[in-house]
């Protein structure tokens, strides 16, 4: 679930897709005459155009976004599974639909998605959808905090939704066990809690998230050996567990994002009305992730999860000024 740790960045593309997908560049090559898609043809054609638009946003360097994503192919595969299965729950719908999309010879000429689009099992897709919804609410909260023109009364509503989705996710983290899903959930919890540092006056009040059961258990019992939970180890293997690379990924994400944000802000500020909005939000996210990274540097992952609540972030990090473009 490593890509879920960047979900707050990925979901911002939804805004861009909304205003770009109707371009002839995308729609003209999404006329689906196949009989198998006839029942919901308009929905499939719309999804086809949005999928191609998202592909450009994630992979086309001319858009100025591609450098900031580490696993765009994983996200776009999730996104397509999520959107398609809202129309058709068939297990082979993803491959059948993608076969039609890639019949357009102008699409993905460099084969960046070759072998990357495949069906995601329902259990894992449901887990990923939790993060998709959590980070949508997280981004909405952050926008409210940063922009005085937003309706601040909505902050409590988004926070409540976060708590509801988060507590639903907690049921998937057995007490005393760790997994890549639970690690990603813990990272979300830390990002969410860091939002309190951005709140000024009473413009937003956040509900408190409960600690993960695995977090509580580690405090009392210490880390468990992988052999004690073979079924969880197998699940992590299927999902591509990369727990040992978490610190590296966090460091790479922070540095890569700082570079990518400059270009993104410049391009969007000049060419779209979303420039100042997206730029400010990404800058604040970068500061939050830098704080989280500092807290993790000197601790092993499991020990960090068990002691995180006792660790204080360095205050100096929040005092670093930056100049808006």
Automatic annotation (TrEMBL):
<dbReference type="InterPro" id="IPR008780">
    <property type="entry name" value="Plasmodium_Vir"/>
</dbReference>
<protein>
    <submittedName>
        <fullName>PIR Superfamily Protein</fullName>
    </submittedName>
</protein>
<dbReference type="Pfam" id="PF05795">
    <property type="entry name" value="Plasmodium_Vir"/>
</dbReference>
